[in-house]
Design brief:
It is a single chain. Helix content is 24%, strand content 22%. It is an alpha/beta fold. It has one domain: Rossmann fold (3-Layer(aba) Sandwich). The strands form three sheets. The chain has a nine-stranded mixed sheet, sandwiched between helices. It is globular, with a radius of gyration of 17 Å. Bound molecules: manganese (II) ion. The site of manganese (II) ion has 7 residues, from loops. Manganese (II) ion (MN) binds next to loops.
Length: 240
């Protein structure tokens, strides 16, 4: 049986880097490639290009993986940039929004990680806290740096009747590297996990008409240390 083709929405070092002689490069964190391959998927990077390409890209893959990275441009949810907003890439936002719309139109499963969950929520009509300091009940450390990502640092409570609940149970611990979070949830999504300070840590589609799993933490950085994190990729690649 052919391996499922997993389209990984890639990122850009648009300003270049001395590592690449100052040239701009397309990349994705290695963990997404390695984890996808480890569970039997065929990873395929989708470079940021014109949104008109989304239909052809999505037609050529079985499933879509949205990775972490920059903040989502707040203009996409009708806000000016707050002083605590970090770097954005509007080209990436528009391309990934087109990939999301096309994946839903073609009924192809989506697994979204960190920023991936945030751009998913914004694309579907939700919005974000531009920085966690703008959330009045913030009292959990959600940027665990410099603690290594193989160490989960905060707990989450998972909905029993959810895809995620079937995978990790009702009580779980995760790593955390986000300074933004979902504020208003998009109407087509439902919350499947929250942190102790009530930040949304995972969402799914509100019914079974689409196959969507999105999480705020980083299993691509912890799947080698924790079978339960690897299982998230296994579920996405082989079952979702
Ligand atoms: Mn967190």
């Amino acid at each position: 049986m052919p391996k499922p083709i997993i389209g990984i929405a890639a990122n850009q070092l648009a300003a270049g880097s001395t590592e690449f002689h100052g040239n701009a490069v397309t990349y994705t964190p290695q963990g997404f490639v390695s984890a996808t391959e480890a569970v039997g998927g065929l990873p395929l990077l989708l470079p940021i290009t014109h949104p008109d390409n989304a239909k052809a890209y999505v037609s050529s893959i079985d499933k879509l993986l949205l990775a972490g990275g920059q903040d989502v441009d707040p203009v996409l949810y009708g806000e000016e940039p707050h002083p605590l907003l970090q770097g954005t890439n509007p080209d990436r936002d528009l391309f990934e929004q087109a990939l999301i719309q096309e994946a839903l139109a073609q009924h192809k499963p989506i697994f979204a990680v960190c920023r991936g969950m945030q751009i998913l929520n914004v694309t579907l009509g939700g919005n974000l806290y531009q920085d966690l300091s703008l959330y009045s009940d913030w009292n959990v450390r959600h940027v665990q740096e410099p603690t290594l990502p193989k160490h989960p640092t905060h707990s989450i409570s998972v909905e029993k009747d959810s895809l995620l609940g079937d995978l990790v149970g009702e009580s779980y611990r995760v790593n955390s590297y986000h300074h933004q979070a979902i504020k208003r949830l998009a109407p087509s999504l439902k919350t499947s996990a929250i942190s102790a300070d009530q930040i949304i840590e995972a969402v799914e589609w509100h019914d079974d008409s689409q196959r969507v799993l999105a999480i705020q933490w980083h299993p691509e950085l912890s799947f080698q240390a924790h079978p339960s994190e690897r299982q998230l990729f296994d579920f996405f690649v082989n079952q979702l």
